[in-house]
Every structure is written in structure tokens, then in C-alpha cells.
Amino acid sequence: MKVSSVLHCQRxxxxxxxxxxxxxxxxxxxxxxxxxxxELVPPQVVEGxxxxxxxxxxxxxxxxxCWFKGRxxxxxxxxxxxKNTRVSVMGxxxxxxxxxxxxxxxxxHNVSQxxxxxxxxxxxxxxxxxxxxxxxxxxxxxxxxxxxLVASAQPSIETLPPIVPDGKDVFVQVRNLPENILGFAWFxxxxxxxxxLIARYIIDEKASFSFGPAYSGRERLYTDGSLLIKxxxxxxxxxxxxxxxxxxxxxxxxxxxxxxxSLVLKCCNSLTxxxxxxxxxxxxxxEGGSILLVVHNLPEGLRSFSWYYSIxxxxxxxxxxxxxxxxxTTWSDAYRGRGMVYASGSLLLQDVTEEDARMYTLEILxxxxxxxxxxxxxxxxxxxxEPFIRITNTTVNARRSxxxxxxxxxxxxxxRWFFNNHNLQPTDRIKLSPSKCGVxxxxxxxxxxxxxxxxxxxxxxxxxxxxxxxWP
Length: 472
Ligand SMILES: *[C@@H]1O[C@H](CO)[C@@H](O)[C@H](O)[C@H]1NC(C)=O
Ligand SMILES: *[C@@H]1O[C@H](CO)[C@@H](O)[C@H](O)[C@H]1NC(C)=O
Ligand SMILES: *[C@@H]1O[C@H](CO)[C@@H](O)[C@H](O)[C@H]1NC(C)=O
Ligand SMILES: *[C@@H]1O[C@H](CO)[C@@H](O)[C@H](O)[C@H]1NC(C)=O
Ligand SMILES: *[C@@H]1O[C@H](CO)[C@@H](O)[C@H](O)[C@H]1NC(C)=O
Known about the structure:
It holds the Pfam family V-set. The chain is mostly beta strands.
């Protein structure tokens, strides 16, 4: 998967290749955690700061090591260090801002946009074996400091409507996108593979959308991560994956299931039975309340079915098994006494908390041992706290910028901004952060003076406005 993805992109423009590879690189890092790895300190780097490429798990018997810019050994040496002689040698890419430590870590002072790129460490041990590892350095012009900064929170993804009638449009709304990101991509299915790519958005100098092999011409992507699919059919039903790459090179992903209600099914004469559908009643739970995950069109002739609290149907995530033929129910310890399961496939969960608001999977096994899966998600609504506006002024090269941040402790919100009681319109100078919690005005002008106000809204459409602030 990874190799072919890189090969595939060899025909792309250099800059595209670079960013697509960055998308993939993070996965290599996840999968090679037991070997030598690089951590960026600080993880989010802003122009003018120093950055340390901290090396972890470097083998002990290293004879020499070498840092270079890029990912292929032939070009761009920065520094080389031989352990026995304790001598550092500067390469053609050395700019006198770099320091190499004996433990392999590299410090770069006062970074700028020119330093953006891959950095590779290659080390040689006493047996003549080499280890090498790369990381991508992104240098931010500035950082958003509102919205989701907690790494633990997940992007929240929801389809509107929850069950789409055949031929209608579905809007996949994303909330809680992290703010400092390089880009995101939507994929068909459960994994981020190139051939399943629908579209991606890269936030660089000219923020740009591009489409992948799974793009059908009916999808539209928005800068906040949301996706619109027009005129859906049964073929569009199933899982979708959103991959997000932060400017700290950390990636995360979220999933959503698009459920399509077949019109053919309704008149009962279809030869190919439509996939079963799962609906959450209600869709927005109150904390402490109950949720019924209702199954429609469960096929006949089932052997058994199981519920899981994840998209991954592994035993660790199991809630309950129901053996249809023998009428035997087996609960996992964590869920025993918390709910009920019905022969119709439906599952009742009582006393739900925010923790329970996640993706659930129903896996069914028919008498021919054929497995089918369906997914459903529900949300827990909380009160909306009044947000406040934080103002940050910066001056770079005599150009003044101001950032307004709408600060709220709540998650899963959508944001709107008002300037002098009108909707604030983004322009070349006035930019909104991905989730819209931040507004940045560059090259401040007199006409920017006035009253700023933000409004936060939860999923149920309950909104609360901030106190308006006068600026300057
Ligand atoms: C390597 O040395 C640098 C500079 O002394 C230090 O900051 C860093 O923590 C060291 N790395 C490890 C992994 O100990
Ligand atoms: C940092 O680098 C910039 C150019 O990228 C330069 O203008 C500035 O003087 C440098 N600052 C320091 C403290 O060296
Ligand atoms: C929706 O798709 C169907 C077949 O895929 C097509 O016949 C129909 O014209 C489309 N409708 C619209 C409004 O595009
Ligand atoms: C299944 O077993 C439960 C008791 O465990 C019983 O109440 C129920 O009627 C049985 N259902 C069927 C369809 O036999
Ligand atoms: C930001 O700049 C404006 C105009 O220069 C000034 O009036 C205001 O006090 C500054 N605000 C902060 C928080 O520094």
C-alpha cells in the first residue's frame, strides 16, 4: 500500500509529491515505533523559533551518523559525526544554524519557511549496518490557539440526514477538526489507501483541493473538513474515513457510515436484498438517558449477531453476542446490566454518558456463514457555555496582524463570527481557522476597526454568543 502510493505519485508536481508523501510518512512512523524515531521539540514550530529533532532508540553501537535534508542519501548533507574521532563534518546544506549532538539529536536555530521539508538521520553501526529514519518539518507562519488543542478529543463526524433516501444528497458534517493542520483527505472504506482517495485539501500558500481515484464527480469538499455527496445510491453506502495531518506531523482519523435507504426495497420485489440499516433513537441523547439502536431490514435466516462499540469487530470491543437459533445472549462484563438486546437485532443502552457517544457496529452471521456489518453513531448533547473572545496582536516586518480567538470549553461546536453585526466574510487578508474558532486579519487597516462577536452552536442547534468586543 505505502510503496505503491509513493510510486503512483511520481508523476505529480514536486510539491504535491512532497505533501502526499507526508500524509503517508506518518503511518510509517506509527508502524515502526519500536525502532529509531524522531520527535520534534516543540511539536509545532513557528518561524524564528529553534527546533530540536530528538532521536529516540538509537542503537548503542553507532560508529557514525549523518543528517541530511530530503529522503534520498545522495543529496543535501547537513552534518556528519564520527563517534570514535568525535569529529563533525559539515555538508553542503549546513547553514551555521545547526548543532549536532553526540546522541544523534539535531538542533536548528531560527527556522524559516525555507527549512520546510524532510530530514533524514542515517546511522552506521559497528557491523556496517545502517539504520535510517525521516521526519517532515513544517514551519508555521503562526499558530491558531483556539478550538481543539486537546489531542485526546476526536473529530466529530455526522451525516445529515442520518439515513439518506436513494437519489438524495447527504452532507457529512465535521466538527472539532484540529486547528493547526497541513491538510485532510476523505477516503472510501475503512483505511487510507490511495486508490480509495476521494479528495484532499492541502493548506499551503494557495490552499487547494484535489481529487483522487474514488472521486465520482458528485462530491464536494469544504475547508472545515465537511463533505457533500450528491444524488447518493446504494453504491455510496458504507464506511468513509477522514484522515487529518497536523502541522506537528501527527495524524488522526475519523469514520462515518453513510446509510442509504433503498426505494427498491420498499416494494419488496428486489432480488438482491438491500443492506440492513441501523438507526439511533434518539440521535442526540441526554446524559443519563437511554438510546435504542434500531435495526431495519435485518435479513432472515441468521445464525447469530454481535454488537461492538467500535468500527473494529474484535473481542476487546464486544458488547453482546446473541445466538439467534439457540436464543442465548452473552454480555461482556462492562455492559452486563446496562442494556437489552432484541431478536430484531436492536440494542438498548441505558444511562449513557459522553464516553458512549461513538461508533457502534452490528455484525451479523447468516446460516451460510456470510458476515455483514452495519455502523451507527449517536451523540450526547451538553449545555453550551458562553464563549469569550481573546485578542492577540503581532507585528512582523512592520506589518500588523490581529487574531481573534473564540474560546469555549465545550467540544463539537460550530462557530460563526460577526463584525459590526454582520456575518464576517473571509478575504485574502481575513482568514478563518479550519473549524472557524479563529479569525486572523493580516496587514490591519482602519476599516477593520469595529465590534467583533462570535457565536458557538452545538449539534442540536442551540447557540450562545460571546460578549461583543471593540477593536482596537
Ligand atoms: C541529546 O542531547 C540533547 C542536547 O544535549 C538533549 O537535549 C536531548 O535530550 C538528548 N536526547 C536524548 C534522547 O537523550
Ligand atoms: C532569523 O532568521 C531571519 C531570516 O530568516 C533573520 O532575518 C533574523 O535576523 C534571524 N534572527 C536571529 C535572531 O538570528
Ligand atoms: C441521480 O443518479 C441517477 C443514476 O445514478 C440518474 O439517473 C439521475 O439523473 C441523477 N439525478 C440527478 C438529479 O442528478
Ligand atoms: C428467549 O429466551 C428468553 C429468556 O432467556 C425468553 O424470555 C424468550 O421468550 C425467548 N425467545 C424466544 C424467541 O424463544
Ligand atoms: C492590540 O492593538 C491595538 C491597536 O494597536 C491596541 O489598542 C490593543 O490594546 C492591543 N491589544 C492587546 C491585547 O494587546
